[in-house]
Design goal:
Two copies of one chain form a homodimer.
Chain A: E1 3-8, H1 16-31, E2 35-40, H2 46-57, H3 63-87, E3 92-95, E4 102-104, E5 113-116, H4 119-126, E6 130-134, E7 137-140, E8 146-148, H5 153-164, E9 169-174, E10 195-196, H6 198-206, H7 214-223, E11 227-231, E12 239-241, E13 257-261, E14 264-273, H8 278-288, E15 296-300, E16 307-315, H9 319-328, H10 330-333, E17 337-341, E18 344-350, H11 360-370, E19 377-381, E20 384-390, H12 394-404
Parallel strand pairs in A: 1-2, 1-9, 2-6, 3-6, 4-7, 9-11, 10-12
Antiparallel strand pairs in A: 4-5, 7-8, 11-12, 13-18, 14-16, 14-17, 15-16, 18-20, 19-20
Helix pairs in contact in A: 1-3, 2-3, 5-7, 6-7, 11-12
Amino acid sequence: MALVVQKYGGSSVESAERIRRVAERIVETKKAGNDVVVVVSAMGDTTDELLDLAEQVCPVPPARELDMLLTSGERISNALVAMAIHSLGAEARSFTGSQAGVITTSAHGNAKIIDVTPGRVRAALDKGSIVLVAGFQGVSQDSKDVTTLGRGGSDTTAVALAAALNADVCEIYSDVDGVYTADPRIVPNAQKLAYVSFEEMLEMAACGAKVLGLRCVEYARRYHVKVHVRSSYTDNEGTYVYGSMEDIPVEEAILTGVAHDRSEAKVTVVGLPDSPGYAAKVFRAVADADINIDMVLQNISKIDTGKTDITFTLPKTDGPRAVEQLTKLQGVIGFSNIVYDDHIGKVSLVGAGMKSHPGVTATFCEALAEAGVNIDLISTSEIRISVLCRDTELDHAVKALHEAFGLGGDEEVVVHAGTGR
Amino acid sequence: MALVVQKYGGSSVESAERIRRVAERIVETKKAGNDVVVVVSAMGDTTDELLDLAEQVCPVPPARELDMLLTSGERISNALVAMAIHSLGAEARSFTGSQAGVITTSAHGNAKIIDVTPGRVRAALDKGSIVLVAGFQGVSQDSKDVTTLGRGGSDTTAVALAAALNADVCEIYSDVDGVYTADPRIVPNAQKLAYVSFEEMLEMAACGAKVLGLRCVEYARRYHVKVHVRSSYTDNEGTYVYGSMEDIPVEEAILTGVAHDRSEAKVTVVGLPDSPGYAAKVFRAVADADINIDMVLQNISKIDTGKTDITFTLPKTDGPRAVEQLTKLQGVIGFSNIVYDDHIGKVSLVGAGMKSHPGVTATFCEALAEAGVNIDLISTSEIRISVLCRDTELDHAVKALHEAFGLGGDEEVVVHAGTGR
């Protein structure tokens, strides 16, 4: 008997009506002869509403209590889906992350899954029940406190359960139809991919694609979980995310798609002494503030030949804090000034195919030049090329690259107001 | 160091603003040098809203899932109160009923507390924390499922914790100021009682007084928990519920108050054979439908001297079901017909004093007669006299009895729109 894990995002369960439709799909999957485990996010905007309520009673809510509060959202939606399944005549039981055996670190608000021991889930499945598991949460191994897993946590819960239960597939349902060669709202003739390897999906996610989070793809890759990204509004097949790009024959390796990202800002530390150790001081200062850095560039300084400029990108939300931190250490580190730019965009081409196709970088740059997009910074990996440009030019850049590499299909995509939730 | 348990009802925490006020009171209690444990109900009408959502997805929600759903309400309010306390500079941790060691039967929706093992609560108190415990819930000893305790469950949680932790007092906060000699909305010169014994409070609760539920008073009595009923809107002392009426010296025993109840209906089984066993069949039929009976009266039948009529009262909500059940068994049991009356009211006089004061029953009936209230049925216990009358005459009956037994004070009570929540 096949075991299917399904995950439904917040907008898929945002009302009693949507909940009933999701229940129908779940029961169909069960009737087709599968064991079914379902992970459900909180309804609609519940998490944001609870956060808002928290801030009304406490400006900086303590992390442990915030996790106790927010996990109510998933508890509510899972119990309701279980009830809706029951009203369709099937058996269903809901469990919290803790009850389902999701064991995590103690980092409230951003806990990592250490282990999944799904004994109660398996027992309920063996009794013929459909099982609901609240996503986005687990229990801390040390303190036995309830924890939440951070952004994309429900996807990670679903993949982790699929791994622990040896599921045949992990279906991630949202309001988008699958993974596309580019965002269909920018490129109407973008094509839905039938299949993407783990490494390529990791790059797409790292480069701004929102349909699956980095953490859940990495977990799927490590435990070889087949992921199927599909829409909860249609019966169409979506995109399978599975397998290693190493397994793709060289002749078949293709370019997967164009991703874009508006969420980053750029910091330039100007006039740093061009000697060993100074770059390290800059990056240590930023790391100590718990900020992740993305792209990095080091240049001869414009202002002084004995100096160097270091440029890096980071999430916009962390920008002001990074600038503040570095400014505090200006005297200690010894640079001239900091330039902060939050009007940048990042566009990336991803694909296992570029390893074996020389000239991709050249075509890439030519396409952007022809579109009048100025390249600010380039960064590459084995299967990815990313550049920074002005955020106002980002859409042009995406279209130009998509066209230049022949990624478009003949039909225009029907675009729902998809957010990938 | 004294240990105080406080319970706050739904209207006391119905908004962010009310939550902050409750937090202030809690922190004051802690600063006065006490260990503090707080039980909080769900905010405002949350429980009813969740029930409504449940019925939208499933007409008859499965009991286990309903408990998973409803317990979210208390989880939310307790986490928010803990956060509000934190913002006032004090330490607080919230626990679910399960985490706090509230062990129950498996009867979802109406579970009984079997035991309370408050290890984690005690540990948190010893570390100097204020502890929040979600009311109305526990965990089933057998299935390890989450359970809810039925109506008044948060009061029961508070008293049970007070017993297990050997608390000095259990303060029950609502929007009413204490226990009165009668409902101040009917009798403006009703007086607040400084003290009521357990047995008297049990009778008051059984006779319709809503401020404390039967189950929590019985629990308090069994474990000798001192209960203090007070308002969360003022600093006034309320009513202490404590001690046995046996301990009250005969000369000091008084009449406690007048309770009234509009929630019952009356069923008369007409023309039952007047032989052994038939009354038993009637009561067995009603008991099998899981319906509780209150007052009972058996009369010579009006229709036939060899027959008898049996009359009993029950909650209005169970009325139609009881009639249906008896009607089904009419042939088997062999009665003529059933009369159903849901326009009755019950008025009761309660007080340890009546044991030692002959003539109370006479005064009682005279007062009602003078007020033009017709007595339909009388029932008495050692410390209570109850009668049924028309529901339209109930207020007159309450006023008349309160006056006749000199229970009124000189001042008129300032009445909040109190519901006792």
